[in-house]
Amino acid sequence: MQFGFGMGPDTSWMREELTKYGVEELKTTDDVDRAMKEYKGTMLLAINSVCGCAAGNARPGLGIALEKAETKPDHMVTVFAGQDKEATAHARDYFSEYPPSSPAFAYFVDGEIKAMIPRHRIEGRTKEQVAEDLKMVFEAFSGEKEEEKTAE
């Protein structure tokens, strides 16, 4: 971990681990609202964290899932717990029926929460197991989007 003078740990590499996969950072409450209102179809929200299970399992697990999954979310966004605190708290308002958890993944279809992978499904598991959970969620809800298109 890198430390600067008068600053906490440098988290830029933790952010880049997600943005390199095309995950958009939501750093403000306005960013969160925009994504929730404008992004139609499927959306994965990754709640990033500095903890070891995020570094060792969640972020790499997402990379593996994206590499291997036949079905991927239309949109991928992230908030960073403990770093972008207001954005994270506001994002959690969109799935308040679930207790706060980081790292975690929330999966939406047209702005409606459909699945949650909380910390206890990440911590103590391998990145490959996390990837399998993510792939399962991607595939489980891809059909809802297709059904809506054919119904129109």
List the main descriptive attributes of the protein structure presented here.
single chain, alpha/beta, five-stranded mixed beta sheet
Roughly how many Å apart are the termini? 51 Å
How many whole angstroms does the radius of gyration measure? 15 Å
Number of helices: 5
> What profile does the largest beta sheet have?
5 strands, mixed
Give the amount of beta strand, in percent. Answer: 15-25%
Helix/sheet category: alpha/beta
Please give the share of residues in helix: 40-55%
List low-pLDDT spans.
1-6
The neighbouring-strand order within the major sheet is 1-3-2-4-5
Looking at the structure, what is the overall shape? Answer: globular
Indicate the mean pLDDT: 89
Strand and helix order: HEHEHEHEEH
The number of strands is 5
Task: Describe the protein's architecture and organization.
With 152 residues, the protein is α/β, with parallel strands linked by helices. The chain contains 5 helices and 5 strands; from the N terminus they run αβαβαβαββα. It has a 5-stranded mixed sheet, sandwiched between helices. Helix 3 links the parallel strand 2 and strand 3. Helix 3 packs across helix 5. The longest helix is centred in the C-terminal third of the chain and has 25 residues. It is globular and about 45 Å long. The N and C termini lie far apart (51 Å). The N terminus is likely disordered.
Structure described in brief:
The protein is an alpha/beta fold.
Topology:
Layout: H1 12-19, E1 24-25, H2 29-38, E2 42-48, H3 52-68, E3 75-80, H4 85-93, E4 104-109, E5 112-117, H5 127-151
Helix pairs in contact: 2-4, 3-5
